[in-house]
Specification:
Elements (H helix, E strand, L loop, with lengths): L2 H19 L12 H25 L4 H8 L19 H18 L31 H17 L8 E9 L2 E8 L18 E7 L4 E2 L5 E3 L3 E8 L2 E3 L2 H19 L4 H15 L1 H6 L8 H9 L18 H15 L5
Amino acid sequence: MTKQEIIKLAKQMGEDLADLHSGDTLSALWPFTPNDLSHYLGKEFCRDLLNTFRELKKKDYSNKEIARLFEHPTLVTTYLTYLNDSDLSNEERFELANQIFEVLKVVRKDPYCKGKLNILQDSFVDKSLFSKDFMKDISLTNKISFLLFMYLELIYPTSMRLGYSFHGPYEEKGERYWVKDYFHLKNPFIKEIKDFPYDQITIVEKISTNPKVDFFNHLLKIPLKKASKVLVNGKEIRNLENFLKELEENIRTIINKLSKKTRKEWLIFFAHGLYYSFYPLKKELNKKFEIPQETLKRIKEEEYYFKTPQNEKDSKKISKDFLSKVIFEGFCKAFGVEC
């Protein structure tokens, strides 16, 4: 991408996030804000991610091959929010941002979701999902979706896109399909969730109206559904009532395990999830999973970076225009370009 193209995209991203968050208050964000995550994790994470991309490119991996290593590569949009607190030079920031955009170009038909749809390239879509039986009663599927969202908010607080990808719609034999992938639901490097019985859950829905999503894969408009089905770890589930009960029990177990964590413990927990999200790339390079010691030291030794207001009177509502401008300027800085 050229620098002008990146500036244009930064403006779109500012508008997308302003639409999503205008009117929010800081006290609504739990257990920490995106600024907290970037402050504590951004420096080493961005350096590690850039070096990993460089090593893969040095070994002649194509952008498409790199995208496939992620399995669900649209999660890379989340990484852009960490650039502001990196120690990368402007040239390195531009390089890392551009590499992330190059991954999106080979994955999405509309890389920046300007049309508010997240349609993946054919080679990243399993069309067999659309050929099996669907259930007309969508009530249980809706409950499963709700529970999964709650679970992702628990294990990836403020960064749920590290665990889901909503994409489509896809036209097949006169029908429209919308795919909701929930992934990285368990993590072998986090003791509390390493034994969670489901690694990936996919919900496929027949729809009659189109959804809307933004660049970051936030769901802006829910489509009207006609039928659906659920696959767990790749296997279709027919008895959704039993599965719903099992899912609820397993999530309740995780909640009990995590309920007494302090904010700093949450940060360490989340760091393991963030680094796990690009672990397949490290594994491809025969490198082990690890959180940098500098990151762990910063979390453990620094005073808590950002104190969330205790009540609504302590924080002001944020206007959409102001928020859009601030986010736009922040992304320009993060990407190493002048607005």
